[in-house]
Amino acid sequence: MSEIKHIAIAGNIGAGKTTLCELLGKHFNWEIHYEDANTNPYLSDFYDDMQRWSFNLQIYFLNSRYQQIIDIQKGAVTVIQDRTIYEDAHIFAPNLYEMGLMAKRDFENYSTLFQTMTSQIAPPDLLVYLKASIPTLVSHIQDRGRDYEGNISLDYLKRLNTKYNEWIENYSAGKLLVIDIDNMDFLNNQEDFGNIVQQVNGELFGLF
Questions:
Q1: Secondary element (H or E) of residue 68
Q2: Nearest to 54 by CA among 115, 110, 120
Q3: Is 45 in the active site?
Q4: CA angle 149, 152, 156 (to 5 degrees)
Q5: Measured between alpha carbons, how far is residue 129 from residues 172, 194, 197 in Å?
Q6: How many other C-beta atoms are found inside a 10 Å radius of the C-beta of residue 101?
Q7: What burial class does residue 135 get, using C-beta atoms within 10 Å of its C-beta: 0-12 exposed, 13-18 middle, 19+ buried?
Q8: For the chain, first and last CA: distance in Å?
Q9: Residue 76 half-sphere exposure toward CB, CA atoms < 13 A
Q10: Which candidate in 48, 82, 143, 147 is catalytic?
Q11: For the CA atoms of 102, 106, 108, 111, what is the dihedral angle to 10 degrees?
Q12: Which string of b and e fits 141-159 if b means at least 16 CB within 10 Å?
């Protein structure tokens, strides 16, 4: 246990990352590092005007997650992290650039900064990817009712999902566990959560 320092949960908006982080953190007695969404000063503005605030938002997330990883690697406890620094660079920033919502010079500046940062950090000991279809994501987003997410379009979610799947198919930085959540309710169904715990145990400790 003591050798495992960093577990990360990845997935599209509404996939259930925070919920699973909390459940696994409690089960394994891991410290939870949340995505800085509620206190992010750019998020609401971004959803109102993506082109104006895209670079600011992505830089804020990049810096926040980099600081989290530095803290994890310096610390003495096992941490489970809600979303990864890799998703910012491989999913969100490229998608904004391709949609014409981030200028080329901003995207190149961002990408160079990401490369510099990630050259100084280690990947997570285990990356857990929550794979979900668009209807599942939309249902979860509607259920939690965050005001700033009300303007998210289906096209935006679809673009992100495509990039997520491409990234995961080529992920080779470390151990990877893919969990299809379309027919799963790990929050309310103990059997579903138990199955995830068993898979995480298997990946980390070879226990089944």
A1: helix 50-74
A2: 110
A3: no
A4: 140
A5: 13, 17, 14
A6: 18
A7: exposed
A8: 16
A9: 0
A10: 82
A11: -90
A12: beeeebeebeebeeebbeb
Domains delineated in the chain:
6-205 (3.40.50.300)
Which residue is associated with the tokens 């990356």?
Answer: 127
Alpha-carbon distance of 183 to 108, in angstroms, equals 39
Question: What's the pTM value of the predicted model, to 2 decimals?
Answer: 0.89
What is the block-wise mean pLDDT of the chain (208 residues), using blocks of 10 residues?
A: 84 93 97 81 89 95 92 93 93 94 97 95 96 92 70 86 96 95 93 96 82
Number of H-type helices and E-type strands within the chain: 9, 5
Backbone angles phi, psi at 8, to 5 degrees: -125, 140
Q: What are the contacts of 63-67 at 24+ separation with CB within 8 A? A: 64/36, 64/40, 66/117, 66/121
What one-letter code names the amino acid at 203?
E
Contact of 71 with 122, CB cutoff 8 Å = no
